[in-house]
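Ticket #4471: structure output looks truncated?

Reporter: J.K.
Steps to reproduce: submitted the chain below (239 residues) through the standard prediction queue, then opened the result file.
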Amino acid sequence: MYTNYIFDLYGTLVDINTNENSKSLWEKLALFYSFNGAYYNAKGLKAAYKRKVKETRLSITNTDYPDFPIENIFKSLFENKDVHVSEYTIKATAQMFRILSIKYLKLYDGVLELLDLLKEKKKKIYLLSNAQRIFTLYEMKTLGIYEYFDGIYFSSDHYVCKPDKIFYNKLLKEFNLDTKNTIMIGNDFIADIEGSSYAKLDSLYIDSNLSPKITKILKSKYNIMDGNVNKIAKLIISK
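Returned output as attached by the reporter:
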């Protein structure tokens, strides 16, 4: 059937709940900045962060779906206060922000069994995720799924997100994937399903607890409407 399987991550393989507006998050992050000589209160730090994120997105003009490495923002927040810190401290700041925002992080039931089956069948597995490398790479390693992938694409590395076909085509070109033998699996009817159709890929839509409400006719070839990962193998993996 297919030889190449491209997965979305959050809402497809990984269930996550975050709150980046948590008062506690910004209080603790402001304290961390202050410990390093960049004095902020929680309200001021949050406002500066949101302003810089907005400005940076607007500065990327070659796509309607921009992204960028979020650690650049945390670095600039130090520089705003004329404080220059090491790359290690910038990384630690970004990851502290992420950890403080997470309520829970876990795999959906059946994910490891699915990935094991794909490897057993000698299939190639790829990731195409609208995600930050500085967060997601470490979350994948923590969850024990990083090593399954033959190729990993994070939007922050490429300054573009799904559903832009530019992002899809970068992965397809680098790994020389035949679109006829490749399928996209995801939970977002626009980013994953419409996006894959722009790249001329078959797709499987899985409706999960993190899926946006569907407002258009699905363009996917296969659909799983109850979020059951265990059904993926029956639909798109040959015996």
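Triage note (M.O.): checked the attachment and the full token line is present. The domain at 4-16+107-236 is CATH 3.40.50.1000 (Rossmann fold).
Status: closed, working as intended.
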